Amino acid sequence: MFDPIAAKRNQKYTREELTDFFKGSGTVAQRLRKENPAKYEELHAEAEKMNILGPSLIKAPAPNTPYKPPTRTYTAEELVARGQYSEAEIRAFFNSKEANDVFTSDRNEYERKREAGVSYGLFKAREVPYVPTKPAEPEWTSRISDELADESNLPRGTVVNSEQLERLCRQKVDRARQAQESTDAKAAADRATELAKLTADQRLEQAARDQKQADLDRLVVLTTPKQNPVPEPIALTTARLVAQEKAKSVEVPIGQ
C-alpha cells in the first residue's frame, strides 16, 4: 500500500538537495559527472523520479577500447592448403604459366593451390565450391598359377584381370564338378550291375535250395512205409448198407 510519508522518509536525497545540485551554477554537477560518472548517474536518476529533470539525452560515453580487426577464420581445406604452400609459393605459381598447365593437367592440384590463395586473401572463394574428382583406379591384374594355366590351356605366366580370373576359376570349378558327376554316375552304374548280378545268383541259388528241399520231402514220402487199413468184414459191411437203404425207403405192407 502506498505510504507517501514513509516513502519520503526513506528517500536518500531530498528534493531540495537535488534541485539545488542540478539547478544551481552547474559547476559542481559537471565536476561530479567528469570525476564520478556513476554517482552523477545515480543523482540524475533520483532527480528524474522526482520530476526535477527529464530523461538525460546525453548518455555516458562508451569506454575507450582500441579497435580490433575481426578474427579471420579458416575452413578445414584452407588450413590444409596453408600447411602445404606458403604465400610466396602461391603468388609465384599464379604469376607463371604453370598455373594454366596445372589447371589442364591436374585440376585437383590447381584447386588446392587456389584454396591456399583464398586463405592468403589473394582470391575470393568460389560461390559454388569445387568438388575434387577422383582419379581412376588402376585395373587389378595378376599372374595365374601354372596349375590353372595348364588346366585352362593357357601359357604359363599369363596375366589376367579380376573378371578373367573369376571366369577361369569358374571354368575350373565346372570341370571338377563334371568330373565328379561322371565318377559318381559310373560308380552308381557299377553298383547297379553288381546288385543285379548278385540278385540273379541269389535267385538261382534259392531255386536250387527250394528244389533240393522238395526232392528231400518227396524222398521222405516215398521211403516212409504206408499203413493200409484192415478191411471190414463183408457181413458187417453188408448189414450197414442194408440199414442205410431201409432208412431211405418207405415200408409197404404185403398184399397191397
Key features of this structure:
two-stranded antiparallel ribbon, single chain, elongated
Describe the structure in your own words.
Among the domains are: 4-49, no CATH class; 76-119, no CATH class; 147-200, no CATH class. It is an all-alpha fold and 256 residues long. It contains 11 helices and 2 strands; from the N terminus they run ααααααααβαβαα. It has a two-stranded antiparallel ribbon with strand order 1-2. α3 crosses α4. The longest helix has 62 residues, at 162-223.
Mean pLDDT, to the nearest integer, reads 82
Largest sheet, spatial ordering of strands: 1-2
Q: What's the multimeric state?
A: single chain
Task: List the secondary-structure elements in sequence, H or E.
Answer: HHHHHHHHEHEHH
Shape: elongated
Strand content: under 5%
The low-confidence parts are: none
Gyration radius, in Å = 67 Å
Tally the helices: what do you get? 11
Report how far apart the termini are.
170 Å
Structural class: mainly alpha
Q: How many DSSP-defined strands?
A: 2
* Helical coverage, percent range: 55-70%
Largest sheet: 2 strands, antiparallel
What topology does this entry show?
Blueprint: H1 4-9, H2 15-23, H3 27-35, H4 37-49, H5 76-84, H6 87-94, H7 98-105, H8 107-119, E1 141-143, H9 146-151, E2 159-161, H10 162-223, H11 234-248
Helix pairs in contact: 2-4, 3-4, 5-8, 6-8, 7-8
Q: Care to give the gist of this entry?
A:
By secondary structure, the protein is mainly alpha-helical. It has helices at residues 4-9, 15-23, 27-35, 37-49, 76-84, 87-94, 98-105, 107-119, 146-151, 162-223, 234-248, and strands spanning 141-143, 159-161. The protein is 62% helix and 2% strand.
